[in-house]
């Protein structure tokens, strides 16, 4: 399993002027990828890599969020790498699959944000970490959406109201970054 592209993305992101919390997570993710050759697979017991799509409107005033069915939280779209070392492609695939959007565009190939978060134990699946590489993706809010089995709802949300739906720092951090992106 080829981890070099992921390490390159993470190292480039870690070299940016990040807030201390995100910088620590980026360093942790780099160490995790080095330590776990199977980091791109769900079978990696401590956790695994995921790719997320922070989907924004062309004017950067809104983002598309999903009310996640299993976690019952409003979140960005995304999913498991399942062996794919191209996490930007994973984020684009998940954006299309989870929203029904046909026209999604990677704003740039660099990582937009990173986050490590705990996924609680569920039926037959022990608790584990998601090491999430997040990419900035643009889409047209007028394109029709399609809710899938993974979410209860989808909505374009004004950036200034995102944290009323989900006050977690990882969401607030992406909101803060968006106007400059």
Sheet-strand content, in percent, reads: 25-35%
Q: How would you state the average pLDDT, rounded? A: 95
Computed CA radius of gyration, to the nearest angstrom: 15 Å
Indicate the CATH topology: Nucleoside Triphosphate Pyrophosphohydrolase
- DSSP summary: helix tally: 5
Count of the domains = 1
Order of helices and strands: HHEEEEHEEEEHH
CATH superfamily: Nucleoside Triphosphate Pyrophosphohydrolase
Number of strands: 8
Structural class based on helices, strands and sheet pairing: alpha+beta
Helix fraction by DSSP (H/I, runs of at least 4): 25-40%
Q: What is the name of the CATH class?
A: Alpha Beta
| Shape by Cα distribution | globular
| Architecture per CATH nomenclature, i.e. the level-2 architecture | Alpha-Beta Complex
Describe this structure in words.
With 181 residues, this protein is of the alpha+beta class. The protein has a single domain, classed as Alpha-Beta Complex (Nucleoside Triphosphate Pyrophosphohydrolase). 29% of the residues lie in helices and 29% in strands. The chain is built from five helices and eight strands; from the N terminus they run ααββββαββββαα. The protein has helices spanning 4-14, 20-35, 87-99, 162-165, 169-177, and strands at residues 47-56, 62-68, 74-75, 77-80, 104-106, 113-119, 128-139, 151-158. The strands form two sheets. Strands 1, 4, 5, 6 and 7 form a five-stranded mixed sheet that branches. The chain has a three-stranded antiparallel sheet with strand order 3-2-8, with no helix packed on it. Helix 1 (4-14) packs antiparallel against helix 2 (20-35). It is globular and about 45 Å long.
């Amino acid at each position: 399993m080829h981890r070099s592209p992921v390490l390159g993305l993470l190292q480039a992101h870690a070299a940016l002027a990040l807030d201390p919390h995100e910088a620590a997570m980026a360093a942790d993710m780099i160490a995790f990828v080095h330590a776990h050759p199977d980091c791109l697979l769900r079978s990696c017991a401590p956790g695994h890599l995921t790719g997320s799509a922070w989907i924004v409107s062309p004017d950067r005033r809104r983002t598309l969020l999903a009310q996640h069915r299993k976690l019952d939280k409003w979140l960005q779209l995304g999913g498991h790498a399942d062996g794919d070392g191209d996490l930007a492609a994973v984020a684009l695939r998940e954006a299309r699959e989870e929203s029904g959007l046909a026209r999604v565009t990677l704003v740039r190939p660099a990582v937009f944000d990173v986050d490590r978060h705990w996924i609680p134990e569920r039926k037959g699946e022990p608790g584990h970490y998601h090491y999430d590489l997040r990419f900035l993706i643009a889409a047209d809010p007028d394109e029709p959406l399609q809710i899938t089995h993974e979410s209860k709802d989808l909505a374009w949300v004004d950036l200034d109201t995102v944290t009323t739906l989900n006050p977690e720092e990882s969401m607030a951090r992406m909101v803060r970054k968006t106007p400059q992106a």
